[in-house]
Amino acid sequence: MRTFMLHPRLEADTVFVTDWALSRVLAMNDARYPWLILVPRRANAVEIHDLEHAERGVLMEEIARAGAALKSLTAAAKINIGALGNLVPQLHVHVVARNPGDAAWPGPVWGHGAAIAYAPTADFLRRVKAALGEGG
Amino acid sequence: MRTFMLHPRLEADTVFVTDWALSRVLAMNDARYPWLILVPRRANAVEIHDLEHAERGVLMEEIARAGAALKSLTAAAKINIGALGNLVPQLHVHVVARNPGDAAWPGPVWGHGAAIAYAPTADFLRRVKAALGEGG
Lengths: 136, 136
Fold this sequence. Notes:
The structure is a homodimer.
Chain A (H helix, E strand, L loop, with lengths): L7 H6 E6 L3 E6 L6 E6 L12 H22 L3 E6 L9 E6 L24 H11 L3
Antiparallel strand pairs in A: 1-2, 2-3, 3-5, 4-5
Helix pairs in contact in A: 2-3
């Protein structure tokens, strides 16, 4: 059993938010969309069906919690959920707040243009950490 | 409480496979990728967090079951899971078998070019119905 280590690409592209029961919660460093990534802290997980039954239940609740929080924080029109992993095999789930007129609307955000990094003082990062870190 | 009705866009783009405990199981009529869509039979669900806790647990197991079945049927390199709904608000979850060299690899399948309809005799549709309909 290997120890969980975050994939270097996820490490480079995100900001740490908090650890929940199963998942590390990251914010994608892309100011175009409010965008969280949940990474189950299981060393060998690639597909959702690689997790154990109980872990899948926890992951689903963490997805719902992240989606509801993003919707509440941003008043987004739609939450997009995705677990792709074509480039980064480590199991990770995107939770993205979408609105008509955003950079990729109505298409998916993945692979759409270059990220725009947040300023270090970005209000979204402060608010999302406060909202999601509470009661971790 | 309205009765569950499949969104006309999903009706037009897919082939019925089976009904599981929560979800209607559809096959996307696009021969470029082995592609299932799970639609929870709940009339007003738009976001995953609109479902009740127990329903989310069932949906997660149905996602895992569909993903494992597609992987087994097709020996795909990666399963992609997505719940977007930017164009079709009715909650639905895509489960897509992906391989290097497929039409959209490594990008997402959504919004990528036009679907290529299956021939009525398509082997994939026959096999997926047999695999997923059993023990429905």
